[in-house]
Amino acid sequence: MVRIMPLKKHEAREEARSQIQAADDVFGVQSFSAGIQAYCPPILNASRALGAAPGQSDQLSAELRHLVCMRAAQIVTCPFWIDSNAAGSSKSGSSDEKIAAVGAWRTSNLFSREEKAAFELAEAMSQTPANIPEDVFSELKKHFRNEQIVELVATVAMENYRARFNRAFLIKPQGLYEPKT
């Protein structure tokens, strides 16, 4: 059970309603996270803008962004964002097998060197304290341009914010990912 009941659109202050609707449109169901953030509309607005920024940068594929976010959410143990990013990965072209292998990426042959370098960063950034060894960053530079590295770091940082926020409120998955097979 969530620790604070999410506000429904009609219960929220006027300045939060359009953002709640936008989140609900993205997920196809009421977003518990947006409903909780709606108690503080500036937080909801900033969170939605932060979530959209990496995609607007468009330096990385949507598939890679979702896969790395899924790995960060796994480390933080946020069921909602694991579910949401699995759904996003699927919509972006990932197979069910690849999605299922994200937690075991080191031993899987389903991921490219580029994806593995990104997962290494996601893991380093999602630990507490965040510690990114020089060899992890050096490996990133072999596969990504500076613009892509900035987007990747921002994506993982954003996912850590979202996943940790949702963990604090015990937000559960909402059944967004349905394997194709």
Describe this structure in words.
- This protein has 181 residues and is an all-alpha fold.
- It is 65% helix and 0% strand.
- The protein is built from 9 helices and no strands.
- α4 packs antiparallel against α5 (79-91), α4 (62-76) runs parallel beside α7 (113-126) and α7 (113-126) packs antiparallel against α8 (134-143).
- The mean pLDDT is 95.
User: Total number of β-strand segments?
Assistant: 0
- Tell me about the biggest sheet? none
First-to-last CA distance: 30 Å
Shape: globular
Radius of gyration: 16 Å
Question: Residue share in helices?
Answer: 55-70%
Strand content: under 5%
**Low-pLDDT segments:** none
Structural class: mainly alpha
Instruction: Count every helix, treating DSSP H or I runs of 4 or more residues as helices.
Output: 9
Tell me, rounded to a whole number, the average pLDDT.
95
List SSEs in N-to-C order: HHHHHHHHH
List key phrases describing it.
181 residues; mainly alpha; 65% helix; 0% strand
Layout of helices and strands:
Elements: H1 14-27, H2 32-37, H3 41-57, H4 62-76, H5 79-91, H6 96-100, H7 113-126, H8 134-143, H9 146-168
Helix pairs in contact: 1-3, 3-9, 4-5, 4-7, 4-9, 7-8, 7-9
Quick summary:
With 181 residues, the chain is mainly alpha-helical. Helices cover 65% and strands 0% of the residues. The mean pLDDT is 95.
